[in-house]
Amino acid sequence: MLAVTITGQLNLLCLIDDLERNKGVKVLSANTDGIVVGYHPKLRDKVLKTIATNAKRTGFEYEEKQYRKIAMKDVNNYIAIDMKNEVKSKGLYAPLGLMKNPTMQVCSLAAAQYLIDGTNPDKFVKSHARTVKNFKDFVAIRNVKGGGVQHSDYEIRDDWVEKEPRIWVNGIGKKEKRKSRPEPYEVGVGGAPFGRVARWYMTKESLPAITYVESGNQVPKTVGAKLCMIMPSSIPKDLDLQWYINETYDILDDLGVKHDLRKAETA
User: Fold this and answer.
1) SS3 content of the chain, % helix, strand, coil (to 5)
2) Contact 226, 201 (CB under 8 A)
3) Per residue in 78-109, pLDDT tens?
4) Which helix (H) or strand (E) holds 116?
5) Which residues of 21-103 form beta strands (DSSP E)?
6) What confidence category does residue 195 fall into, taking pLDDT thresholds of 50, 70 and 90?
């Protein structure tokens, strides 16, 4: 802890202070073992000299990665474009892997392409849907503790019974303590329960959200979703492409990217 965490962090703070003493040099973010520095190309020699001085004094060796663009939601969630237009994305926008479940990856891909060459997300998402052979970029997967269900509909029930004075119980076992009869409540009907992992895509159909079996609470970000436990061999006709386009706009907004894409779409 002393050698890595404390000493390393103190050294990075010193380096940040040294760098920002150069007018026009801005440290954009910092984490445990690295910093992101923004500066005009004409200031590059000053930046490298400052880093070299720190390295000589402390014995630390530094590695450099140059980016043409970097858009950050925060230090752990960002999309960066290097000098060869290759994409490095982290956190929410990272590519699929053993440590990350699919989360509508097409939206991150569309956001990255906009940063590379300005391709409109509307054009990218629709083109991706036409040409992609694997539907995985359009689905999300999430662990659902205790299992889940997507009901086919909802109905209103009013079956409260006063079991004891001021103790009301309804048909699904929920209890309320109050003087007067509780209000009618909404309950899901139809739909088959599934195990502890849910996979879905966004649909044009009007369906209830996916919920937890035990609590009845909504699984996050499943309003407008359609359960998809068997991967389709082609793009479903009810796929709501506009949802993915709007989600890409939201990602760009979260990353602090200035754009007028929504206005252009409306026009």
Assistant:
1) 35, 25, 40
2) yes
3) 999 999 999 999 999 998 776 678 899 999 99
4) helix 105-117
5) 26-30, 35-38, 67-74, 77-82, 87-90
6) very high
Return the residue matching tokens 């849910």: 198
Give the Å distances, CA to CA, from 94 to 107, 234, 260: 11, 25, 25
Cβ pair 93, 108 in contact under 8 A: yes
CB atoms within 10 A of CB 127: 13
C-alpha triplet 107, 258, 253: angle, nearest 5°: 45
Which helix (H) or strand (E) segment holds residue 174: the answer is none
pLDDT digits (tens, 9 = 90+) for 220-245: 999 999 999 999 888 999 999 999 99
In this prediction, residue 142 has a pLDDT band, given cuts at 50, 70 and 90, of very high
Residues shown for the chain: 267
Residue 181 to residue 124: CA distance in whole angstroms? 54
* Alpha-carbon torsion (204, 92, 106, 145), positive or negative: negative
Q: Look at the pTM and tell me if it is higher than 0.70.
A: yes
Task: Give the HSE-up count for residue 69: Cα atoms under 13 Å, Cβ half-sphere.
Answer: 17
Return the structure tokens found at 54. Answer: 């720190």
